[in-house]
Amino acid sequence: MRWLALAAGLAFAAAQPAGDSPAQGARIFEVPGYVGEWDSEAGEWFAMEGYSLRFSVPQGAEREGFWQLLEAAAERGVALRLRFDGAAGRLTEDGHHLLYPLCAIGAANGAWYGDTARNCPRGALAAPRAEQLLSLGVAQSFDHPETARQTLAEALRASPALSANGEALALVHRGESAEAISADFEPASPEHDRLWAEALADYRRLVLLVPDRAAPRSSLANALIALGGYDEALAVYREIGRRWPEQAFQTAVSIGSLYRQQGDYPRALATLDDYARTGDSTRMDGMKFHYHRAWTLILLRREAEAEREIERGMTSQPDYPGAFLLRSCARARLGRPAEALADQRRAFELTSALFPAPGAGTRADLARNRAVIALLEQAVAARRTDPIGAACEGYWDRWIRPRARSPLLDAAPAATPA
Fold first, then answer.
1. In angstroms, rounded to a whole number, what is the distance separating the alpha carbons of residues 246 and 418?
2. In terms of C-beta density within 10 A (0-12 exposed, 13-18 middle, 19 or more buried), how is residue 63 classed?
């Protein structure tokens, strides 16, 4: 669910099919996200949380002011918007990331820092064509997945010119592009399963390519879940827990999510609570733990506890739209439509600000948001105090609905290295 990690629909300036280098106006992307790690030694790059992309300081930027902006955003847990040339990224020296020269960075108040021209200065073109295709395809994957799959397929066809790490980046983003497209189809439908089976094939290839990393196995498990391979996915998560103990937090959240999708809400909650008793307490300060625990409490009809839980997460990430939607659900069920309405409106404002040119998935979320706002306005006008379920319906359905095992799972090879 890629909406829970803020990687589900990004603002894309224009579509560009694979082929010759794209025209300048078609290369410019704007990405919303939260500050992740950065180069604390030389101050040459920073990353957004959950992305394999890194960004360099904008040309001509006053470095001290730029880093102060980043540090303030990280401290306050607020999102930023980044403008960059999608064709100008280059593999870092270790090959694990793509580094893009940043054109401008936008603050929550709408102000931009750096080159605010729509067409950023062109990056150097000395890299091999396969690397240029990789750079563009990864940028496209965030909000133009069909085009990204074509571009990344061409990059993979030229993969002898890519390092193993470059090939791995192409595979993971091509798989994630198939996931993004699948969101337009009903779970377990033929088209949905075809796309996830293609993603699964990419992730199996990825695990073979880089067997010493945990993240590819996590992607593999997600694909297995989407196709109803719950037992296989659980085995993969447990393997991650054994081999990569530093992944204990993410493993607990993932296993809890698996049980939640199967409808075993008590076991999902117990998994999170077991980690809370034995795991790294600093990991529980962030939004992810509190969001998943609150979501599970909602499903157990423990709305008052869920409201308190999500508010703990909001202290570290106060502008996450999904948190306001979840609290709105709890408050509406508790018979407090005015507060639920305020949360829905805030979620709408935040989503609209983050995605000024939303993709199809975000447009559907905003349409649902507007419909719930209208229903809650009627409830407030009628002075209702009874439980209202409308704020809890539709948004999370595909992640809490068990499904039958897809026959495509048994048609594909299952072997991965131990």
1. 18
2. exposed
- 390 DSSP assignment: G
Give the integer Cα–Cα distance in Å for 360 and 183. Answer: 9
Going from the N-terminus, what domains does the chain have, and what CATH number goes with each? 8-162 (no CATH), 168-179+186-399 (1.25.40.10)
Q: Tell me the DSSP string of 134-195.
A: HHHHHHHTTT-HHHHHHHHHHHHHTGGGS-HHHHHHHHHHHHHHHHHHHTTS-TTSHHHHHH
Cα–Cα dist 367/346, whole Å: 14
pLDDT tens sequence across 216-272: 999 999 999 999 999 999 999 999 999 999 999 999 999 999 999 999 999 999 999
Picking from 306, 302, 372, the residue whose alpha carbon sits closest to that of residue 337 is 372
pLDDT band at 175 (very low <50, low <70, confident <90, very high): very high
Question: Is the pLDDT at 9 greater than 60, yes or no?
Answer: no
* Max Cα-Cα span within the chain: 67
Task: Collapse the DSSP code of 38 into the 3-class scheme (helix H, G, I; strand E, B; otherwise coil) and give the result.
Answer: strand
Question: Are 61 and 71 within 8 A, CB to CB?
Answer: no
Please tell me the distance from the alpha carbon of residue 254 to that of residue 389, in angstroms, as a whole number: 27
Q: Going by C-beta distance under 8 Å and a sequence separation of 6 or more, which residues neighbour residue 57?
A: 43, 44, 45, 63, 66, 102
- How many helices and strands (H and E) does the chain possess? 15, 9
Q: How far apart are CA 92 and CA 96, in angstroms?
A: 7
The answer to whether residues 339 and 331 touch, using CB atoms and an 8 Å cutoff, is yes
**Do residues 98 and 135 make contact, with C-beta atoms less than 8 angstroms apart?**
yes
38 beta partners: 46
